[in-house]
Write a structure and sequence with these properties.
Strand content: 15-25%
Helix content: 25-40%
Shape: globular
CATH class of the largest domain: Alpha Beta
Number of domains: 3
CATH architecture of the largest domain: 3-Layer(aba) Sandwich
Number of strands: 20
Radius of gyration: 25 Å
Structural class: alpha/beta
Strand order of the largest sheet: 3-2-4-5-7-6
CATH superfamily of the largest domain: Thiamin diphosphate (ThDP)-binding fold, Pyr/PP domains
Distance between the termini: 76 Å
CATH topology of the largest domain: Rossmann fold
Largest sheet: 6 strands, parallel
């Protein structure tokens, strides 16, 4: 006897629940409302954004915080086009994301008396053109199997699934439509012995090696093995921006490499005679357009993806493999060096790094009505709880990143993968959902805030532990400096000096406007133990260009 039939949308909701999904994000539409409410009834928490773009960013932030699949459910047509910005961002991050979109019915009615499908749109064509793996649940009986395939594919990167309305509403036999068991998870790649042997010979000839760790090294759980390798060889340690503080506490942690580096770490970096990179793309930010690393030194690059090796920066030796496994193999293959043969680990270098003060790198430039953003960051680093998540939007204010710390990369999120402002708010909401045990602190500029102001209501409605620090320079800061450096008028990049704290208060935030460090320090008790959503409208001096913007300009001038 067959089981009682179920609507497809209900069967899909049960499958999503069985997959272990506990949170879904997005924005309800007529073509996804039944699926979303059924998920909610089954105990899957749906966190709804006020814009589809932020709904996708929420799913990405959740995936980044937890390592789990991030699920976004959105409507068809205009909803899908609204979400495309966030979807491309999610794809660029490489996070495990499944985007479920409603879709127009894929069968025509008996007559066209109902008129045209106003939301009709070639979603599959657009998504495929944007590089998405796109699956369509084209008929009821196979819809559950298509969902299962989409969830498996999404573990390797953002995947889209289209659910036509007529398919969702059709009835199916749960037994006859059951999906197959998912394939086993992939195991970490084992490196080729010949590649490891070649790297060993390069490292034997090196006396001052530099280990560069990217986000891939963190995700591989390679921290301890990389520090052990550094101690074994006498290597200095450095990270990319996304892997910031991976080596926090190690005496030869040189901070971030490239555009966000500091003078303390650069003293060791510039002495390196060999570079070995683990899970880092070595892009223009990490290498400062190729100028951050010593020239004419061998580069060994380790990555799980063969196509990533040598993609942005030259690699003399490539090793395809898991960062932790490769680090262990290299340490086992190389004899430990005596202390006298570890010049980057001598007492003077250790003391130099221990004594280095980040505040020594700049002369503060406050104004009577605005703070130096770097001084503000150093103050917040002390005032905020040590155990925190940090999420950054994009803009000139991002120069503050080296002045704030986290316990490790798992509590840090940058949203610059699509080089676009406006994605930080949604990402922070998802990150806070995924890691609610500690406060999430969002840094964003006033331009991005005005794009996403409606999400203030989402924070309060979802009761998320979020602290928003508005880095308010009354401008599109990056564009202002872009124009200024080219001796062009900047008036169109500037905004009025609006006080946003009362607006946040109207949504239910504890809010304050901050123009001086004294005013900031007066808020110390509130920041030390954030009890609810907090909003700080921090007025900053926007005349200070970020170093990475100046690098962009210098690179542009070098072009023929």
């Amino acid at each position: 006897m067959s089981s009682p039939s179920l609507p497809v949308y209900e069967a899909l909701a049960h499958d999503i629940k069985r997959h272990g999904i506990t949170h879904a994000f997005g924005l309800m539409s007529d073509d996804t409302a039944l699926l979303i409410t059924t998920l909610d009834a089954l105990g899957v928490r749906f966190c709804g954004a006020r814009h589809e773009n932020e709904g996708v960013a929420m799913a990405e932030g959740y995936a980044s915080a937890t390592g789990k699949l991030g699920l976004a459910i959105l409507g068809r047509g205009p909803a899908m086009t609204n979400a495309l910005h966030g979807a491309v961002f999610a794809q660029r991050t490489g996070s495990p994301i499944l985007l479920i979109f409603g879709d127009s019915p894929n069968t025509l009615p008996a007559t066209n008396a109902l008129g045209p499908e106003q939301k009709g749109f070639n979603a599959a064509g657009v998504l495929q053109a944007a590089g998405f793996r796109t699956l369509i649940a084209s008929e009821p009986l196979s819809a559950r199997r298509t969902l299962a395939k989409a969830m498996t594919a999404a573990q390797q990167g953002a995947t889209a699934l289209l659910l036509p309305m007529n398919v969702q509403l059709a009835s199916i036999d749960p037994d006859a439509s059951a999906p197959e068991a998912p394939p086993p998870a992939r195991q970490p790649a084992a490196p080729r012995a010949s590649a490891v042997a070649t790297a060993v010979e390069v490292l034997r000839a090196s006396r001052r090696p530099l280990i560069v760790a990217g986000l891939g090294a963190h995700l591989a759980g390679a921290r301890e093995e990389l520090m052990a390798l550094a101690d074994h060889l006498g290597a200095a340690l450095v990270t990319t921006l996304k892997a910031q503080d991976l080596f926090h506490g190690h005496p030869f942690d040189c901070g971030i490499l490239g555009s966000f580096s500091n003078a303390g770490g650069r003293r060791l970096i510039e002495q390196a005679d060999c570079v070995i990179s683990f899970g880092a793309g070595l892009n223009q930010r990490t290498t400062s357009f190729g100028t951050a690393l010593p020239t004419d030194v061998p580069v060994i690059q380790v990555d799980t993806q063969r196509t990533h090796i040598g993609r942005w920066f030259h690699a003399d030796v490539g090793i395809v493999g898991d960062a932790r496994v490769v680090a262990e193999r290299l340490r086992q293959a190389l004899p430990e060096r005596p202390a006298a043969d570890k010049p980057l680990h001598d007492a003077a270098m250790r003391q130099w790094l221990a004594d280095f003060d980040r505040a020594s790198e700049f002369e503060p430039q406050p104004t009577p009505r605005a703070m130096d953003p770097r001084s503000l960051a150093l103050a917040l680093d002390r005032l905020l709880p040590n155990d925190r998540n940090l999420v950054y939007d994009v803009g000139n204010f991002l120069q503050i990143a080296p002045y704030l710390s986290v316990p490790g990369p798992g509590q840090l999120k940058h949203t610059a993968d699509f080089a676009s402002i406006g994605l930080g708010f949604g990402t922070a909401l998802g990150f806070a959902c995924g890691a609610p045990e500690r406060p999430t602190v969002l840094f964003l500029g006033d331009g991005a805030f005005l794009m996403t102001l409606g999400e203030l209501e989402t924070v309060v409605r979802e009761d998320l532990p979020l602290v928003i620090v508005l880095m308010n320079d009354c401008a599109y800061g990056a564009e202002l400096h872009y124009l200024k450096e080219r001796n062009q008028p900047v008036a169109l990049s500037k905004f009025p000096d609006i006080d946003y704290a009362p607006i946040a208060e109207a949504f239910g935030f504890e809010a304050a406007t901050v123009r001086t460090l004294d005013e900031l320090h007066a808020l110390a008790p509130m920041l030390a133990e954030p009890a609810g959503p907090i909003f700080l409208d921090c007025k900053i001096n926007g005349s200070i260009p970020a170093p990475f913007l100046l690098e962009n300009l210098a690179q542009e001038r070098r072009k023929p």
